[in-house]
Amino acid sequence: MDVEVTRSQVGGHSRAPPSKSYTHRAVLAAGYSDGATVADPLVSADTRATMRAVEAFGGHVDRETGDRRLDVEGFDGRPGVPADVIDCANSGTTMRLVTACAALADGLTVLTGDDSLRSRPQGPLLDAVEQLGGRGESTRDNGQAPLVVGGGVDGGTVSIPGDVSSQYITALLMAGAVTDTGVTVDLETELKSAPYVDITLEVLTEFGIEATETADGYRVPGGQTYDRTEAYAVPGDFSSMSYLLAAGAVAGGDDGVVVEGARPSAQGDSAIVDVLERMGADVAWDRAAGEITVRESALSGIEVAVDDTPDLLPTIAVLGAVADGDTRIVDCEHVRYKETDRVRAMATELEKLGAEVSEERDTLTVHGNDSRLRGATVAGHDDHRIVMALSVAGLVAEGTTTVEGADHVDVSFPGFFDALYDLGAELEKHER
Ligand SMILES: O=C(O)C1=C[C@@H](OP(=O)(O)O)[C@@H](O)[C@H](O)C1
Ligand SMILES: C=C(OP(=O)(O)O)C(=O)O
After folding, report:
1. 323: which DSSP letter?
2. Which of 341, 368, 364 is nearest to 355 (CA)?
3. What are the residue boundaries of the Enolpyruvate transferase domain, all occurrences included (predicted)?
């Protein structure tokens, strides 16, 4: 599907979808337990991949209750050996979290995914599994999926880089809790995307699991049991919210956009509020009500480090393309290891819309541009975040912007275009 977005104003209330990161963790934590309910989950292509994995390990996810609740029967600590390969589709989180889980099983698990996921780095996590005495192999011997994992690991100490993906640490902590001796993770380099490990620690606590930060990394004691009696409620997703908030800041008029479901949580991507404020946007977060209001404002370029918030890069790049002066997005090398190289993809596509952009390995600079963005046909790079960010740019670009491959929003925000349309955006979907 392609989507044509015509320059238009937006306004009104919109509800943030539930958090992808919390949903993945809650569904898998429920899988490790003897059963639990996840309330207000995100049901999207990525979280469905994690549900499939829980089922492959011997659990069951009852989706009959619809989008409001998932009743998960667990595989009760140790996963069974799957009867078939596990297809993680486009979801890096699923592949990493499931790799460490599969290392607990007595037999072998084969994990694969789509073209994008089969090109993302898994090597450091496979090494970690081997350091724990398990088997962690890439079938092509290139550190990428398909993977073969197993060996019934029982705990130990691993050294792992912190600057490729925090999901490796999340994976090891979640699996480590049910090993005999626990897992100590020593970080070889500074941790990027650190707030995602905070999300993990929060969810682990909610499922009765103890894990702590140490001087060199993290430690989870073994012999623990995942347990949750009350339904676990998933908060709203700040990465998804960033597109709605950016839409309000660039095209929201005087009334602006109000995003509901913005309850404070461990999500680092709530930094989007601060970024908007620093760029000069009229933005206010009522934390008690869980509502963020943003009105259209003249924006100025700033420097933003995205070491903790990689998923905000496409949104900030679009804000930078509309702002006066340069926006420098620094500390962004790890954003190249996502569904696509998002630094390169945003540079390429914003240039098609008339923005001036320069790219270094660790920095993306969007130069202030007096002339307006102009509508063009842009590629979505089979990446939900690129599609959503470019669609927001389409709200301000002169004329019409066609975003190709727009169906990829299903990965994290299936209702994205409906939400934008309901806010008043002029857009048309075209099946290819
Ligand atoms: O753990 C998570 O839920 C995530 C961690 C981040 O990845 P990295 O840790 O690989 O940067 C983030 O980009 C991804 O969207 C979700
Ligand atoms: C990178 C992302 O997710 P994952 O790593 O789970 O594919 C994302 O949602 O932007």
Report:
1. S
2. 368
3. 8-420
CA distances (Å), origin 142, targets 139, 162, 335: 8, 20, 20
Q: Where are the domains of the chain?
A: 2-17+236-430, 20-233
Domains 2-17+236-430 and 20-233 fall in the same CATH topology: yes
Q: What is d(CA 324, CA 301) in angstroms, rounded to the nearest whole number?
A: 6
Any ligand 2 atom below 6 A from CB of 412: yes
> Is residue 193 annotated as involved in ligand binding?
yes
Question: Is 358 assigned to a binding site?
Answer: no
Q: Which atom of ligand 2 is nearest to the CA of 338?
A: 1
Nearest-atom number in ligand 2 for the CA of 383 is: 10
CATH architecture of 2-17+236-430: Alpha-beta prism (3.65)
Distance CA 286, CA 293 (A): 8
91 ligand 2 Cβ < 6 A: yes
For residues 418 and 420, give the distance between their C-alpha atoms in angstroms, rounded to a whole number: 5
Active site residues: 311
Tell how far the Cα of 239 is from the centroid of ligand 1, in angstroms. Answer: 11
What's this model's pTM, rounded to 2 decimal places?
Answer: 0.98
Q: What pLDDT was estimated at residue 64?
A: 73
CA distance 159 to 136: 15
What is the rounded CA–CA span in Å between residue 430 and residue 377? 13
Ligand 1 atom closest to Cα of residue 20: 3
ipTM computed for the complex: 0.99
Return the residue whose CA atom lies nearest to atom 3 of ligand 2: 92
Ranges under pLDDT 70 in the chain = 65-67, 369-371
pLDDT of residue 325: 95
